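Appendix B. Raw example, untouched.
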Amino acid sequence: MKTKFLDSTDIDQLQSRERVHLINSLGGFKSVSLIGTKSRSGNTNLSIFSSLFHIGLATKILEHII
């Protein structure tokens, strides 16, 4: 099987449903993400999230909603 590379122009030319499925699949199967924060006073926090997904059709942005 030959690898196909897509650039932003290729992704923009996909049908909207194809684009949604492609972008949503970038996170992988049952992926988890570690999100860390640090307050101004130096307190740190690290949490596990499994809610990586794509918002909107025009932009190719993956988001974490908290």
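End of appendix B.
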